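Memo subject: From amino acid sequence to discrete backbone structure tokens
Keywords: amino acid chain, backbone geometry, structure tokens, three-dimensional fold.
Body of memo: The sequence and its backbone structure tokens, given next.
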Amino acid sequence: MDKKIRVGVIGCGQISHMNHFPKYEAAGAEIVAACDIREDRLDAACEKYHIPNKYTKFRDLLARDDIDAVSVCLHNNLHAPAAIAALRAGKHVYCEKPIAGSYADGKLMVDTANECGKMLHIQLGLIYNPNARAAKNLIDGGKLGKIYHMRSIGYRRRGRPWVDGYGAIEFAQKSVAAGGALFDMGVYHISQLLYLTNMPKVQKVSGKIYRELNNADPERVRSSGFDVEELGLGLVRFEGGLTMDVLESWAVHMNPFEESCIFGTDGGIRIEPFGFYTTMCDLELNALVNTAGYDSRMHEMHAEEMKLRDGSMNHWLAALAGKTELYPTKDIALQTMLIQEGIYMSSERDGEITAEEVTAASKSKALNI
């Protein structure tokens, strides 16, 4: 890094150790301060990463004038208050997914970033992977023709946080996490497709959520107050006739589903394992694409450019250093939240709901911290 970026990290749980502390350290950013209400986690993080300043109240961290940006590594209903306070304190913000616990909270975050003239970056990791780059290349090259349908698919056979034996208990609690499978993992798959298709405008959403399986340990269900969905289904209608169906599973009695895909008039793409499908000279062609080779060539031939968008954290640091314009991840994440909350509202009303109805009905779920 040419410019020393000075950062603070709010939240010292699992995600900060996976995606923030080590990546900031590896990139040469200076981690000035960290914050967590649990002093044991805070002390452990500061010792491991040699962080000189520690706080149990995030507003005390934000009062420092030697921090350029902060990472918000909290649970979903805590994103908005921490991110908004940071933006108003003059800091750029990198926030974990999803953008917030509701559309209303996410919209306030986006509006605040715009008003304050600060960058707000949401962690949408799948838009940076080699398969997404290959898909974007084919789509922008016109090889799919007119895109008319997408499938957003995510599968876990038995992967409910806490209830199935791993992860923090808060993931199972609507009061903190706001949602389950759709918020935890669905955000990645939906946002990837919105990014690839240049964020089409949502018109209507229909959906259903489920929490039905009987194979969970009763005591872990009871102790956690498990009240979020383990399966989310949806159908989204966009302007121009484009549609998308959604299936996101934390737990289901079924073998793996095929991954997300995109249907076009001239060709189709499956994201993982990557495949391109078309018809040529009346022959049905299924092409297995060497995305690893493609990605390797891009890194060899366009090394400096690739450094600017080689993962969410690298892209964030490049934007902070003024080397590239930040992807509109806050806008993609907000559109994703519109779809997710639309599925919840549709399931509750047992009928289709318009985008305008979702935005009008969305309420803040932010916790007072």
Remarks:
- The chain is about 40% helix and 20% strand.
- The mean pLDDT is 96.
- The radius of gyration is 21 Å.
